[in-house]
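Please, structure for the following, as tokens.
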Amino acid sequence: MKRFYLLLFLLYSSGITLYAQKAAFGQIDTADLKLTSCSFEKNASAMVLFNTAKASYTKYDGIDMEVHRRVKVFNEQGTVTANVKLQYYSGGHNEDIKNIQVISLNLVDGKIAITPLDPKLIYVQKVDKTQKQVVFTAPAVKAGSVIDIKYTWHTSLSYNFPSWLFQELIPTRYSEYQAEVKYGYSFNVIKKSTQPFVTDTAYLVKEQRLKRHVYAMSNIPGFKLEAYMGSVEDNLQGVYFKPAQSEMDWNMIGLRLLLTTDFGGQWNLPLKGEKDIINEAKVLKTDEDKIAYIFNTVKNTVRWNETDLAYSEKGIPAAWALHTGNSTEINLMLYRLLMQSGVKPTLLMLGTRDHGEIEFNNPSFDRLNKTVVRVPIDSLQYYVLDASGKYNTYNSTPYDLLGINMLTIDPDKKDFQIVKLKTALPSTEIVLVDASLNPTGKMDGSVQVASSNYKRISKLEVYDKIGEKKYLEAIKDDNNNLQLSDFKFSNLEADTLPLREDFNFKLELTGSDDNYIYFSPNLFTGIGANPFLSESRLADVDFIFPSTYSINGNYKLPVGFKIDALPKSTILSMPDQSVTFKRTTGENNGAVVIHYVIIFRKTKYTRDEYPALRQFFKTMYEMLNEQVVLKKG
């Protein structure tokens, strides 16, 4: 169910029934058609008027969830809500979406006009080996329209009771979920909320032999994407039904994975031409040499298709032959070749940050979407290998795996545990700015940036994704007075060396006149603009890995000018010393010399810790932006 709701949420934001604001399908108060804005989120392009659902068991112990959703479109931007994709698990025909009704309602000359969607325009598309999606576009949608949708989601699996999300990208006026659980079935109900429920109740209905849960929220703000956050769904308000049966634990999930053809059945399948690779590895003297050789062979042979899945779609022999595969296929190839070469690897399965982290107390398959390999170095240390990453190395844990729960899978011992990978090694960025100022208020100079460890990898990944033009625009940070030239990378091939960036710049200093020159030494620091301006925070803050910034600036004074004001040397720290900022300033041989050191020791902050973090960043950026003042004479 997780993917079904998350895709619905991401595509047009995305819930049904004990409230005056709900109504029968197709029946609407003209006041809703005349609405021009959301009362509690004025700038919203669209709003969910109500989103309601009722889930209950069928005669044959399947589950039907009847959904009724109504959306108001305020402007042209909000018309994207007409495009709907409902994704579901189609493997083994365990889930289905049926009884779809879609209409659009508009006011035409003061009268309500209803436009139904032709059922022939509702399509079912294959997403992958186990997923399908129902796709349609509501008709005649424009600014002012209301979109009314009803459908039934069905599962044949009695333990697959659906969860419910109250919150999405656009605001929701009312959302309600009614869940009817039959006697004999037991679920743990987990509530994630940052605002009170208007209804929160559960009671027995003895004559029907069931327990009825009813949850509702009103005036739910649209979720805003925030810097340094994990998956969207992990931060949405919702209720989750998790099977309470004792057999639904991580050990049982691990055993089932081993018995699955598309996972546990893969590493016994030979790869074409593997004997030469295995023989080459076996003659190497140490396990580390074998690991490095096989890791690089797999990484350079098979290209990642940008897909993370918990299983092999086409089988690892086929993916090997095609030289392309998903992350699990690539790493199962790596696992097999290491095993055949005499190394003793195990596996780690996880939910990536954007997909949703697996939860220790809530065992389930739905958040698992990637597999990597773990190889022991000694009794306490491991290499964690992901051959699907272009810049990953065999001896450095990929940064996107840090700080999240993972399921260990040891096929030989049938051992399964939840672990969390950490690193205490900071990734560093060293910036050297050598600049000169002239009497007309212009600055020019050169910059060198050296980025090590995860800073190196993340920069290269960003550069690959957005290209040089946008990368340089990001360095400029929207400063139209700044020009960059002669940009180049060094040490691209030597992954043991820091990535080096060199470029020249020219900067027109605003606010300067014939007698005074003003400039901020907050140039090319690498930390960008303050990401924590909002007074409130919806999601926890996740920096992923510890970082250290060292910024060194040397600014040669123009002839005829002297220092009139210089920021003071100072130290700023979080109360728990998790972040420190140090500034050292002075004058040397006719130049302003400024040195910053910023150290991030802690990687995660909860929403409750956000106010202290926000205040620190506010003060730190004020200090970074303090100006140097030069006076003529």
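Residues 1-20 have pLDDT under 50 and may be disordered. The longest strand covers residues 95-108.
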